[in-house]
Amino acid sequence: MALDRTDLFDIRSLLSEEERAVKDSVARFTDEKVLPIIGACFDEGRFPKELIPEIAGLGLLGATLPEEYGGAGLNAVSYGLICQELERGDSGLRSFASVQSSLCMYPIFAYGTEEQKRQWLPRMAAGEVIGCFGLTEPHGGSDPANMKTHARKDGGDWVINGSKMWITNGNLAHIAIVWAQTEDGIQGFIVPTDTAGFTAQEIKHKMSLRASVTSALYFDNVRIPDANRLPNVKGLKGPLGCLTQARYGITWGPIGAAIACLTEATDYTKERVLFGRPIAATQAVQLRLADMARRITLAQLLSLQLGRLKDAGAMQPQQVSLAKWNNVRMAIDIARDARDLLGGAGITTEHCPIRHALNLESVITYEGTETVHQLVIGRELTGISAF
Question: Is the pTM of this model over 0.85?
Answer without folding.
Answer: yes
